[in-house]
Amino acid sequence: MKTAFVSIVKVIRLSSWGLKNRLSSMIRPETGRSVMLACDHGYFMGPTHRLEVPRKTIEPLIRYAEALAVTRGVLRTSVDPKWQTPIILRVSGGTSVLREDLSDEGLTVSMTDAVRLNVSAVALSIFVGTDHEKQTLLNLGKLVDDGEEMGIPVMAITAVGKELEKRDARYLSLSCRVAAEIGAHVVKTYYCDDFHKVAESCPVPLVVAGGPKLKSEADAFELTYNALKEGAVGVDMGRNIWQNDHPVAMIKAIRSIVHENCTVKEAIEIYNENKSMHSVENSITA
Ligand code: R5P
Question: Residue 2 falls within a domain, yes or no?
Fold first, then answer.
């Protein structure tokens, strides 16, 4: 029996038709939910395991995503302009995993280029509580000003750099709320215990990242199921999909939870049924 999902409806009062239109292309109006495919890791992680050749990773999966999150470089080189999936363009950067502190980010793409690239949203990281908190929050303010002017929604990402242990409800509630108060139209954060507290106090739609690959498929399905039940509108997931040996089966199973309210058990069945569709050889390690 399916557990009833908690429905938290968040209506953003948007002034621009273009902005509303772009947002509704990424969050399906019929379900109010979204499966976003995150492939923007290279901007600070370099050739991440199983994202070494971005087009090979993206092509089999893109038809199952409401939106694709990439950088300008991957968009130009590895995404066919004929593909219709809305693009969330990563526009912050300036650090790499070789540094201890990943929070020293600036804006790497102008809003003019984002418009020229015909993207549906721009995304940047904010690093609340770090030495670069102010700088990343001012980046967000500037991006929201420019986005409002051009009709492009802004997704703020509550990044924690290498400090993964920071991801608790107290910290994430604060970060998400700050992002929404500065004007983010959507916030991407992490799932955590008591996630409902994060969702309830954030007045704009929330999606959750998957984070590093979890021990099992069931763990990723459970994260998705719980996040949706507690108020997220979807996922913006990367490694738990494309680092899996069966990425198409994985994204189809995630979709079943997000759009069809499937349980974890049902998602496992869908994953197993679809395993033959596309698999990846265990080759390069990064
Ligand atoms: C970090 O590189 C990006 O913000 C990713 O888009 C985000 O972490 C989601 O990807 P994953 O599910 O792999 O954590």
Answer: no
User: What torsion do the CA atoms of 80, 24, 186, 203 make, to the nearest 10 degrees?
Assistant: -170
Q: What is the pLDDT of residues 242-255, one digit of tens each?
A: 999 999 999 999 99
- The pTM (predicted TM-score) of the whole model is 0.92
Does residue 37 belong to any structural domain of this protein? Answer: yes
* Tally of domains in the chain: 1
Q: What is the mean pLDDT of residues 121-132?
A: 96
212 C-alpha to ligand 1 centroid (Å): 8
Range of the domain at 49: 17-274
**With the CA atoms of 59, 62, 64 and 70 taken in that order, what torsion angle do they form, in degrees rounded to the nearest 10?**
140
DSSP letter assigned to residue 129: T
Q: How far is the CA of 56 from the centre of ligand 1 (A)?
A: 18
User: Do residues 232 and 40 touch, judged by C-beta distance below 8 A?
Assistant: no
- pLDDT (tens digit per residue) in 160-219: 877 878 889 999 999 999 999 999 999 999 999 999 999 999 999 999 999 999 999 999
229 as an active site residue: the answer is no
The response to whether residue 229 sits with its C-beta less than 6 Å from ligand 1 reads no
Residue 169: how many other CB atoms lie within 10 Å:
16
**Residue 279 placed within a domain:** no
